[in-house]
Amino acid sequence: MYAYASKLIPPLFMPLAALLLLCLVALILIHRGKTTAGTVLMLSSLVLLCGLSTPYVATGLYYTLERQYPVKKLAEIPKGDCLVLLGGALAAALSPRVDPDMGEAVDRLYKAAQLYKNHKAPWVVVSGVNQQWADLVLFEGNLIKTIWVKWEFQEQA
After folding, report:
1. Does the N terminus or the C terminus of the chain have fewer Cβ atoms within 10 A?
2. Which residues does residue 102 pair with via DSSP β-bridges, in sequence order?
3. First-residue to last-residue Cα distance in the chain
4. What is the number of domains present in the chain?
5. 55 and 83 co-located in one domain
6. Is this prediction's pTM over 0.90?
7. Domain interval for residue 100
8. Which tens digits make up the pLDDT trace of 120-139?
9. Does residue 32 sit in helix, strand or coil?
């Protein structure tokens, strides 16, 4: 139950849901005869929605975060006890494909493999589970092992 709730409830508090709620309030105001207030609220929410949906705003937000955490050169990264690889990078192959599907977070997999190969840590802990509704046979950890063996990043299979 928690897995479903954790995926369904957070989007209700995102900006899109708030703007759609404003549109709904605007429609209610218009329906009750307060057309000026409803129209102003509707137009305002639509302008905000269009403005916040542009790639310029998204890119600006990403750059704001990325500036706070600059990329370090491999030599600058200290050694540790283990690497933690967050899940969400791979999914099981959907027929007719035979290789795992790589998502937009596959850079995590590559960077962890690069750090491991350069002896930044002796262990890699893979985090991530299959969701209850996912019809997957292999766990993401097994998929990552398969990829690393193919990429020859792992010393022992």
Report:
1. N
2. 90
3. 36
4. 2
5. no
6. no
7. 74-151
8. 999 988 876 665 555 555 67
9. coil
